[in-house]
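Re-run requested by the PI after the first attempt was lost when the workstation crashed. Everything re-entered from the original request form. Ligand of interest: 2-acetamido-2-deoxy-beta-D-glucopyranose.
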Amino acid sequence: MASSFLSLLLLTTSALGATTVPSFVAPAPAPTATSPSIYVGASNTTLNKTTVVPGKSFDRFIQIWLENTDFDDAVNSTQFQKYIKQGLLLNSYYAVTHPSVKPNYIASVSGDFFGMHDDAFYSIPNNISTVVDLLDAKNISWASYQENEPSDGYLGFNFTQPNYLNTSAPPYTYYVRKHNPLIIFSSVSSVPARASLIRNFNDFAVDVNAGAYPQWSFITPNLVNDGHDTDVGFISSWLEFWLDPLLADENFNDNRTLILLTFDENENGKINNKVSSILLGGALPANLKGTNDSTYYTHYSTLSTVQLNWGLGTLGRGDANKTMANVFSFVADAAGYKNENITGAAIPLTNFSGTYPGALNANIYIPFIAPNVSAVSPAGQPVFLAPGLNTSLTLANAPAPVNLTAKGEPLPGGVGTPGVGGAPPAATSASGAGAKPTTAGGGGTSGAVGFGRTAASLAAVCVGVVVVGLGMIL
Ligand SMILES: *[C@@H]1O[C@H](CO)[C@@H](O)[C@H](O)[C@H]1NC(C)=O
Ligand SMILES: *[C@@H]1O[C@H](CO)[C@@H](O)[C@H](O)[C@H]1NC(C)=O
Ligand SMILES: *[C@@H]1O[C@H](CO)[C@@H](O)[C@H](O)[C@H]1NC(C)=O
Ligand SMILES: *[C@@H]1O[C@H](CO)[C@@H](O)[C@H](O)[C@H]1NC(C)=O
Ligand SMILES: *[C@@H]1O[C@H](CO)[C@@H](O)[C@H](O)[C@H]1NC(C)=O
Ligand SMILES: *[C@@H]1O[C@H](CO)[C@@H](O)[C@H](O)[C@H]1NC(C)=O
Ligand SMILES: *[C@@H]1O[C@H](CO)[C@@H](O)[C@H](O)[C@H]1NC(C)=O
Ligand SMILES: *[C@@H]1O[C@H](CO)[C@@H](O)[C@H](O)[C@H]1NC(C)=O
Ligand SMILES: *[C@@H]1O[C@H](CO)[C@@H](O)[C@H](O)[C@H]1NC(C)=O
Ligand SMILES: *[C@@H]1O[C@H](CO)[C@@H](O)[C@H](O)[C@H]1NC(C)=O
Ligand SMILES: *[C@@H]1O[C@H](CO)[C@@H](O)[C@H](O)[C@H]1NC(C)=O
Ligand SMILES: *[C@@H]1O[C@H](CO)[C@@H](O)[C@H](O)[C@H]1NC(C)=O
């Protein structure tokens, strides 16, 4: 398995190297201006100001997710050097799995990736909770901003629109569901008031201008601005256009705001999955600016940190694993919470996926299991239990894993169909023409394609794309 992974990885890397990176084009006049034609969906009912729930170390947490870049590549760039000087470089921050596709995104909001290792259309059932259950329990406002999402709470697989980088090129796919973690959870997408908080960048502009920016937010730039289809130079141009002015905008970054600039995973699958993560914002203590923190962190640290800060409960999954979920040190120290730091060889290798049993892994399928019901959050609060959760279905007493792929059976619980509730307008192309080659199915097994995927829709995915298989870094 490892050797086929590595050889395919080399193939993929050279294929990516041949891709020409286009020149950056600003998608809007300013980050706080709407851009009706490029950001697509009109702004939609500005969020209302709500009572600010004070946290111990910050009142607002903003995370901005970039894509597939090795630690050194980011840290060496001029734009990141600028942020490192005004922020805190987290020098030992790791993604939780690798390679390929988007398990890191769902892990960052739910504490698990349920064995996910491919790019299929997923929808995770109502009994699986996320950070928004914890935030809602304390009336802490939240939203996710997804650039080029065509409408709020959009349920489609992706969205293809005119190519604004090159108007003579074919339409381009800028928005993908797999980078929009909360919409994948039924507990968010099936509740209209929650789905309306999965917003686009026109909404972002009006929410910031209204002084109604929420207390917790997850921001996903589009496929070119986040580096997925481009490189760190393009990311830098976007950050200069978008983040630099916002850092000086009190409606976004005030003296109680903590901003995490991070990457979903690294690019080189042969080394451990360390990513460049930088903490910025007015809530960062002045004495930490321009310094490093080498405590071991992962994407689960974003959950444990907000739990401690706001006295939230836990999800009882990776966020409750003391090793994997150290709280950002300055927040831990302020609250007198003790981290369990690890260094060097003790740091787990998190650069392989597809090997974990889970409800989203057709090769080693087990049902969605309950969280650890006796876990407590770093704030000493109990686990959040979703209505209808079968708390006795734990890993210890789950049925033995089944290889559904070998049996030719689909993953059970087929609860997602591409396009439902938000199919792209007919004028746009679903083939993603103009996009760089991508993978379909992935995971090295054609059976591992997830919920609700019929043979016909799988065939459609394969039209016009290059199937590379295991090792493709998406
Ligand atoms: C904001 O408040 C107004 C008036 O109460 C209400 O009509 C509107 O739906 C609210 N907007 C959102 C996004 O909740
Ligand atoms: C980053 O810079 C360091 C120091 O100049 C250099 O050793 C390293 O090779 C560079 N890495 C990359 C990926 O450019
Ligand atoms: C959250 O708001 C609701 C409705 O305003 C209120 O009933 C509830 O007590 C609040 N919960 C907390 C923890 O403040
Ligand atoms: C506005 O929000 C509603 C749900 O609140 C959604 O159904 C609709 O598609 C949204 N429109 C746009 C343009 O985002
Ligand atoms: C723009 O797209 C056209 C059509 O695909 C292509 O011929 C041209 O080279 C592209 N321009 C740039 C600057 O990439
Ligand atoms: C933080 O900002 C608020 C509102 O602008 C201001 O009143 C307060 O003095 C500031 N605090 C510090 C420590 O700068
Ligand atoms: C912080 O870490 C970076 C990257 O590992 C390193 O280049 C730099 O020298 C460190 N800075 C300090 C102040 O230790
Ligand atoms: C974790 O270990 C690293 C490396 O020794 C050190 O720099 C860092 O301060 C430690 N963090 C904590 C919380 O002890
Ligand atoms: C916590 O994470 C570590 C490192 O991945 C792992 O070895 C350990 O088994 C996990 N603990 C639990 C209780 O899952
Ligand atoms: C969660 O719901 C799914 C789908 O209904 C079901 O298969 C699974 O057993 C449930 N798991 C728990 C722990 O309740
Ligand atoms: C599951 O079955 C597939 C197809 O027969 C096979 O390729 C794969 O290696 C199996 N995986 C495991 C973990 O047994
Ligand atoms: C977009 O989604 C459609 C299915 O709805 C799929 O056929 C196509 O490959 C996807 N394109 C990209 C770039 O993800």
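Saved to the shared folder this time. Residues 1-18, 415-474 have pLDDT under 50 and may be disordered.
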